[in-house]
Amino acid sequence: MLFRAIWQRAKVATNGGDLPLSIRDELAHLQFHRIGSIVPILYFSIALVAVIAGTASNGGFDVMYHTVLPGGFILLGSYRCYVWYRRRGLKVSTAKVRRYLRSTTMIALAMGVVGGLWTVDAYNETVETRRVLAPVFIFMITFAGAICLTIMPRVAAGVMCVSLTPTLTIMVQSDDIGIQAMGICFTIVSLLTLLLIVNSFNEIVSGLVLRHELKALSETDPLTGLANRRAFRARFSSASGSAEAPLGVTLVMIDLDGFKEANDRYGHAAGDAILIQAGERLTSLCQDANCVARLGGDEFAVLIFDDGDCEALKRAVQTVLSLPYHYRDQQILISASVGMAHGPHGAISLETLMREADSELYRAKQWVSARRQASRSASRDARSDAALRGVHGYR
After folding, report:
1. How far is CA 325 from the centre of its chain?
2. Per mean pLDDT, which range of 129-143, 204-218, 360-374 is the poorest?
3. Which range, 145-154, 159-168, 266-275, is most confident?
4. Cα dihedral 72→77→80→86 (10° resolution)
5. Residues 110-131, mean pLDDT to the nearest whole number
6. What pTM was computed for the model?
7. Which among 154, 278, 372, 385 is least buried, having the fewest CB atoms inside 10 angstroms?
8. Cβ-contact 303, 251 below 8 angstroms
9. CA angle, residues 340, 345, 349, in degrees to nearest 5
10. CB neighbours of 71 closer than 8 A, spacing ≥ 6?
11. In order of start, what are the domains of the chain with their CATH numbers?
12. Which of 67-71, 193-197, 343-347, 389-393 has the lowest mean pLDDT?
């Protein structure tokens, strides 16, 4: 149980924990760009180790140790540098990013296994090799992983384990007290390096999480949870720039008629409840919309990239938002005015759409205002007639 708990904590520490998918995708892209920029250092370190090992083994080993293996490491490192150099600056999909990172992981682990076996085999040949070749290789591969694979702690830990564990085990169990002490020192340094890698990675993840939280705060209306005006404009620009967007774009603008009067009559808490319920109704009704936003006050907007007829949606929005609102044990009756504008995708600006939708919305509100005015006049006339009838009856 203790081992399982330690293993679970290690897994969480090396993959950032239970992160939302959006943060995981951003983390993958960050790993891709960081690895791409640091790859020359990584493979230069590996090539340097190969050259040192090949030179040191030239006197007492066959051609496999001082030519083939070092040459193979140098060629593979050079090829991988070229591959990553070609990827620099490219806009790559998240699926490709993950595939590239997996291939880098497998190659790094394979090179670690080969290097570790090479070191163990060489370690058992002569006393000189034990004291020079193996410690140098261990030292270089440890800090190559620490510097270059910080952004991928699982890979760094895997490379360190497969490369260092066999040789360090032999060194720690050696009868030579000097080699034993060296093995213990390298073990401690490796563990400390791994701890630094994990801490650095967790700081990177914490920074990503904080950035996402700040972005959400800056783009979300705090009362309704809908997108705010800034996010609304950003999503229009993002959808307009997409090649997969349909030919048409529709903007629906909404105002709550009578909201100010209800807010003044029932209080600000009731006004907040009305806005929250209106946002929930719009979100439920417009599930296929690209964006549902509260632009400010009692003004809402719905953005839809769709080639179809949205007149039915316009009527549905007006109907749903005109249903009674509930606050405590009271029902509050207000209505909604709706304006809509439609234009070709990529050939119309958001300002033009908003201007056209606002014009229709203004006409709708004028009609509602005139209707209410007529209703009030009729009501006043009815009250006056009743009062006159009462006076005449009294007389």
Report:
1. 36
2. 129-143
3. 266-275
4. -130
5. 72
6. 0.68
7. 385
8. yes
9. 65
10. 50, 54
11. 2-218 (no CATH), 229-394 (3.30.70.270)
12. 389-393
- Residue 40 reports pLDDT greater than 50: yes
CA 326 vs CA 186, 256, 267, 329: distances in Å:
69, 15, 13, 7
The neighbour count for residue 61, using CB atoms within 10 Å, is 20
Residue 148 Cα distances to 161, 278, 308, 386, angstroms: 16, 52, 52, 89
Contacts of 314 (CB under 8 A, 6+ apart): 252, 338, 340
Q: Could you tell me the two tokens for 142?
A: 């440890």
Strands 299-304 and 325-327: unpaired
Of 340, 318, 341, 322, give the one whose Cα is nearest residue 331. 322
Q: Which residue has the tokens 């009271």?
A: 330
Helix/strand number for the chain, H first, E second: 14, 6
Name which of 345, 252, 357 is nearest 307 in CA terms. 345
- pLDDT at residue number 133: 63
Helix, strand, coil percentages for the chain (3-state, nearest 5): 70, 10, 20
β-bridge partners, 291: 303
Query: Could you write out the DSSP letters of every residue in 207-269?
Result: HHHHHHHHHHHHHB-TTT-SB-HHHHHHHHHHHHT-TTS-SEEEEEEEEEETHHHHHHHH-HH
Choose among 312, 290, 315: nearest CA to 302: 290
